[in-house]
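Let us practice reading a record.
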Amino acid sequence: MKKWMVVASVLALVLCGTVMVSFAQEAGPHKAFMGGPGHGPGMGMMLHELNLTDAQKEQVHAIMKANHATMKPLMQQMEQNRAALLAATANGAYDPAKIQALAAQQAQLHAAMTVNHEAIQHQIYTQVLTSEQQAKAEQLRGDEIKRINDRLQNMANGTATAPSEP
């Protein structure tokens, strides 16, 4: 049972890393960390719903560009880690210790990316948004929290369904 939990965790981490890197490559540095499909509203949808002015959009772009240098090495390390995991499990190979080590590295990288992502959101929230836009952002955040809590309640009741796009 414990082995399956480790395998499932590793696969989830690999999937998250793949999605982040893929999204970053497709969207470019100014959009890569603003949320995406299946991840709740994220900052991208929030920014869209906040009706930013052109000047605000330029400020957001500048913040994203300034932070790209920090995020790019993390994304590259996540891809290298993913490649190492694929190599470690090629041809049905299974070394729990090696997989656990790679999973731990991936978790650290994911944590670092999350911290950077939240720092970017904080910069945008405090330096770009007006007080009215901040209030709307908080409403959107509350809506997302409600959706998460509803899904958790459904899971607890055994009535979970696939998450819907907001």
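A brief commentary: The longest helix spans residues 54-88.
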